[in-house]
Design goal:
The structure is a single chain. This protein is an alpha/beta fold. It contains 7 helices and 11 strands. The chain folds into 3 domains: about 1-115, Metallo-dependent phosphatases (Purple Acid Phosphatase, chain A, domain 2, 4-Layer Sandwich), CATH 3.60.21.10; about 120-195, no CATH class; about 200-244, no CATH class. The longest helix is centred in the last third of the chain and has 20 residues, at about 225-244.
């Protein structure tokens, strides 16, 4: 594909009138470009074109599209991704959006990046450590933000015990009424204190004894005796196979 792209640009370049300043416009990924997620473009499913294929002296300016982040990828000739004028997802949350104003004056080429008032994406990260009044705590933090023109997502770091005490309908109602659009809640669960490792369960126990002690320490809505019987049979079969 890179060879084909190179051949096409060869053909187009050969037709240029040298006395007229020429611009190459390409909607492609080039090596060295940075995406909105702060990662360099790597060879993967899409074609990544070496900068040498497009950065040719016959062109005064190379206007690049496809990557949404503004950046200069080459100086001679000037090759620039103008980026997009709007943010499309949370990967672009911190990116400045805009367009490039380019001036070609004989041999001199200058450009200026002009920002636009793009839609805002905001991520609110909250860690709740107490189950006493988690809903009130979340809303207290949320009210510190001006969300009227923003697309918002809420990331919560909580335990499963705290999760039971959160009134999610109330939280969703607040965000829906006070933001442009509320994406929803993402939960990251911390280990509950009650679910920490049982000190009686250690490497000295065989798997069945360890499982039995584990069942004694947790509240599970299952037939523990039946599970232990099945586990014992599986363990016996496994040991027989190993000993062979």
């Amino acid at each position: 594909m890179i060879e084909k792209i190179n051949t096409i640009i060869d053909i187009l370049t050969a037709k240029l009138e040298p006395s007229i300043p020429s611009i190459l416009s390409a909607h492609i990924s080039v090596t060295g470009a940075i995406t909105s997620s702060e990662k360099s473009i790597m060879i993967g499913d899409e074609v990544v074109v070496p900068i040498s294929v497009i950065a040719r002296p016959q062109y005064k300016y190379v206007a690049l599209g496809h990557i949404h982040r503004y950046q200069v990828v080459w100086d001679m000739p000037l090759a620039v991704y103008s980026g997009s004028i709007e943010k499309i997802d949370f990967g672009e949350e911190r990116d400045e959006k805009g367009f490039c104003h380019v001036i070609i004056d004989e041999q001199n080429v200058t450009h200026k990046f002009i920002t636009t008032n793009s839609r805002q994406f905001k991520t609110i990260n909250i860690e709740i450590k107490d189950a006493v009044s988690p809903t009130e705590e979340i809303l207290k933090v949320a009210k510190k933000y001006d969300l009227k023109e923003s697309i918002v997502r809420l990331n919560l770091k909580i335990t499963k015990d705290i999760d039971k005490h959160i009134r999610y309908r109330e939280i969703s109602k607040y965000f829906n009424e006070n933001s442009y659009y509320f994406v929803g809640v993402k939960k990251e669960f911390d280990a509950d204190k009650g679910a920490l490792r049982n000190p009686e369960i250690n490497e000295q126990l065989n798997p069945i004894d360890a499982l039995s002690k584990y069942f004694l320490s947790v509240d599970l809505d299952v037939d523990k005796d039946e599970l232990l019987k099945r586990a014992s049979l599986l363990y016996k079969e496994l040991m027989e196979e190993v000993n062979k």
